[in-house]
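in:
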């Protein structure tokens, strides 16, 4: 290692010695850089003496002249007040130096910085007070200074008492100065790299940056410490105004959507108007057949308005709001069919739950001598909706002239119930070829009991797969929503770009496929 170090020093010396004479003297540094180095060294001297045990009037009221310009540095009053405390507070115990005070721990890196600039002045030409040494001759000195400065900086970070850290030193200025010292350490490393690579331009830039950073750390003594300031709090009046404006904006959005829904031609134009109207009429009739009153236009167009408002609230970006509105319009166009299928299946389950009691009631009617039509009439009067509505509609159709078999067929089309279909077919067969309808009803009641037990068992067995399908579908969008809340600008910028749109489309497709696969894995037909 020692031999390798000697070889590196020798090679750096040869490289810098081989430079032209101009590069070794005035060509390496500009006049401004040399003035900055001289000023930085002077200010590091003042910085060091400010925390000394004894104070000289020259230090307290220093008049600067020469290359640094005419300036007077009057020692800040807070240093006079804090210096005794800094001298008495012991923050570090060193095996060789003993117990060090807060002031002494600060003086160590400051004195090393002065030494760094003093070594740099040796590379200046003679007319600037230098010796004209090539930097390669000083590589050992620079390396030693960098190591000692790094150790002193590490001590700054580690020195503390039970209720004090060096970042709180100098009324809180310590954190800023320590951060500047970190940057100075980086520049010292750049100086060593520039010497080893014989890069005179980089060497000059690193020295200049170190001089500027050192002067900035000295200037911190004359500035107020940086403290955390709470952001201004909104008054209750301002909050009310903001809430009122938000509500008013949402009201305007609602009016816009209302006008959009009132004028269908604003949404679809030309040949699509008739198609849209016919689809509305079709779904309107389908909902009415399920005894559900709903305005299909609202159902189809409301998602567009809701998604537009959500897009605006999340991003405050018009493009994102329009994209959300288009997505809501697409979803709303197929929403009536999905809602109808869901309501029909839900209504069918309710009818299945009531069918067993209705069959028992009809069996009793048949045993007492009534016919099947009178049994249906009895169920429509004595049962609860929805089965009473369905049986009552069969009786009304029959009384209006429709055959009983056709009235039953219409009910079978309207209600999604497998057991009800069995009952209807058994009644139709009995009216055509005869048979004991009471026995058939008893068998259907028995089948309903067994199927309900089996259905409950399969639901318990597939509950985990059902929940997983919901998690697979919901979690990605929940995480996306959280990211929109915390990184709104970044997310909007990404998802409004072509790549982001492609990613969003791919996510929608693959999440949908995942939900279908997980749901299919837990689906058992009974």
């Amino acid at each position: 290692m020692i031999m390798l170090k000697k070889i590196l020093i020798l090679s750096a010396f040869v490289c810098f010695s081989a430079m032209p004479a101009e590069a070794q003297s005035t060509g390496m540094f500009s006049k401004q850089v040399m003035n900055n180095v001289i000023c930085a060294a002077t200010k590091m001297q003042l910085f060091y003496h400010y925390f000394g045990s004894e104070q000289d009037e020259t230090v307290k009221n220093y008049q600067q002249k020469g290359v640094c310009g005419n300036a007077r540095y009057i020692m800040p009053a807070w240093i006079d007040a804090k210096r005794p405390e800094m001298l008495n507070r012991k923050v570090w115990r060193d095996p060789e130096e003993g117990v060090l005070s807060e002031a002494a721990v600060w003086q160590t890196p400051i004195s090393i910085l002065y030494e760094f600039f003093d070594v740099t002045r040796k590379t200046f030409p003679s007319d600037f007070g230098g010796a004209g040494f090539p930097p390669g001759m000083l590589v050992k000195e620079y390396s030693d200074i960098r190591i000692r400065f790094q150790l002193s900086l590490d001590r700054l970070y580690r020195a503390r008492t039970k209720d004090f850290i060096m970042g709180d030193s100098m009324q809180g200025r310590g954190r800023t100065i320590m951060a500047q010292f970190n940057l100075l350490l980086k520049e010292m490393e750049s100086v060593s790299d520039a010497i080893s690579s014989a890069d005179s331009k980089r060497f000059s830039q690193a020295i200049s940056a170190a001089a500027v950073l050192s002067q900035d750390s000295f200037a911190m003594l004359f500035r107020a410490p940086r403290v955390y300031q709470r952001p201004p709090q909104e008054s209750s009046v301002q909050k009310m105004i903001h809430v009122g404006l938000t509500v008013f904006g949402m009201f305007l959005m609602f009016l816009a959507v209302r006008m959009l829904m009132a004028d269908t031609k604003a949404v679809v134009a030309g040949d699509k108007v008739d198609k849209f109207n016919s689809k509305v009429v079709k779904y309107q009739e389908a909902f009415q057949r399920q005894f559900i009153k709903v305005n299909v236009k609202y159902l189809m167009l409301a998602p567009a308005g809701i998604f537009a408002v959500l897009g605006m609230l999340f991003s405050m970006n018009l493009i994102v709001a329009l994209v959300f509105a288009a997505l809501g319009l697409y979803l709303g166009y197929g929403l009536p069919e999905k809602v109808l299928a869901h309501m029909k299946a839900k209504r069918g389950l309710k009818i299945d739950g009531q069918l067993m009691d209705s069959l028992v009631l009809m069996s009793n009617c048949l045993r007492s001598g009534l016919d099947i039509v009178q049994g249906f009439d009895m169920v429509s009067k004595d049962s609860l909706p929805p089965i009473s509505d369905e049986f009552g509609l069969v009786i009304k159709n029959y009384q209006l002239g429709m055959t009983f078999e056709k009235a039953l067929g219409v009910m079978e089309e309207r209600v999604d119930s497998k057991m009800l279909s069995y009952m209807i077919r058994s009644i139709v067969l009995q009216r055509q070829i005869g048979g004991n309808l009471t026995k058939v009803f008893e068998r259907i009641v028995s089948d309903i009991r067994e199927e309900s037990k089996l259905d409950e068992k399969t639901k318990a067995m597939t509950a985990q797969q059902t929940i997983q399908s919901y998690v697979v579908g919901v979690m990605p969008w929940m995480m996306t929503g959280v990211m929109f809340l915390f990184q709104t600008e970044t997310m909007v910028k990404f998802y409004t770009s072509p790549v982001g749109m492609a990613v969003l489309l791919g996510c929608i497709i693959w999440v949908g496929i995942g939900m279908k696969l997980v749901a299919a894995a837990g689906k058992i037909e009974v």
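note: Confidence is low (pLDDT under 50) at residues 1-26, 265-269.
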